[in-house]
Predict the 3D structure of the following.
Amino acid sequence: MFMSVTASLAEGFLMTLKIFALTLLFALPLGLIISFGSMSKITVIKWIVKAFVWIIRGTPLMLQLIIIYYGPGLAGEWARHMSPEQFAAMAAPVRSVVSWFATWNVFDRFVAVMVAFSVNYACYFSEIFRGGIEGIPKGQYEAGFVLGMTKSQVFFKIVLPQVIKRIIPPMSNEIITLVKDTSLARVIAVYEVIWSAQVYIKRGGLIWPLFYTGAFYLIFSGFLTILFGYIEKKLDYYHS
Amino acid sequence: MPILEVKDIRKSFGKLEVLKGVSLSVEPLEVIAVIGPSGSGKSTFLRCLNKLETVDSGSILLDGEYLAENAVYKPEKELRPMLKKMGMVFQQFNLFPHKSVLENIIEAPVCVNGETKTEAIKNAEMLLAEVGLSEKINSYPCELSGGQQQRVAIARALAMKPEIMLFDEPTSALDPELTGEVLKVIKELAQKNMTMIIVTHEMNFAREVANRVVFMDNGNIIADDTPENIFSEAVDTPRIKAFLSKFEG
């Protein structure tokens, strides 16, 4: 029994790991881009990005998952069931948007999970990046500039490596939170580890597999803690 | 032909006009000390020369070529090769903390000037020997004293083979016992015929090393003369006399 539960939980945990890894893959670069937006000298861009980050950070990830999963389908339904008179009464540009909506269908569950997680985590990461980037003294940029470096050389060779060292502690915090947040995917029926355990409750009233999932989370977050500790130590060769 | 020519530059920060029409012409091999009270615009003037600050009006020419003509700068692409002819040393050193001394020095020669790594390392070793820090080649800035960091910063600027060096209060952030080692390096540079503009509060150093002293006050150059004349008892500008008297005794 124990072995078969372990095997099926491991299978569920594979999905957990997949969500985790892909979220990092998309959210880290996206977060960097969003952080540039929130520091933009163009006020309009800056405030649009800041408002977006506020909405994403200010609402539950669970709600975002539900909206992203059901939203496009609902919009599509609404557009397809619109009466011809109603459609004709609208201005031309609105009409073209509505006919675009009409092509929409419910997202694939996994795609919805990836979109929601990537965007959500990108917003959190963007704030960490912003803090890290703004903490680099102006003199570092000036030193690069007077040596003839281009803006991107200064950013990638001088600024970013220092930002990475600064953001490792808040980043590791956020990434360990992500491990546990992956369990939210089950609200739109993506089979991750907790879902696999719940199957045992539904089938035979077996509750311990649910507790057992904790061990999977603990082992994985323990591994990440050690990994980040190692990276932090590795970057400890200098102080600014 | 002057190596650097500044014509009537003005610069304001908000409502405060920091430079009120400053002109200066620098000939090759000149060592110019810029002195004057705090807030007189010395550092801003220096920072305007290599576009760390942009001027509001006036022109700047390097080797007879306009860097900025009536406050209109050359496009970034043409500007960058010109700007790197001017080496700059900052008050706060601004070494790259995540790079070793050697990496600090070879970074720009390799990635900007396209030197090979071997070539750049050889040059860096030579420069470090000149500033007396050969044994620190693999250290990180955080392991060095302020004076040592500033000497590395000088070597880093020299590695780009500049035609002129700009020093922005190079010893102001240093403990008094460390200023000597940095001033010695600058003095040796002067002996090697480097053209330099040095913003400084070290009057004895200015008198000894500079062959021209520019006195700035309230956004203007109010005196531009040999050190002998500026520091002589006979100077007849009360503002300079008052300023210099603070450094006596």
The CA atoms of residues 203 and 247 of chain B lie 7 Å apart. Residues 96-162 of chain B form one domain. Chain B touches chain A through 28 residues (CB under 8 Å).
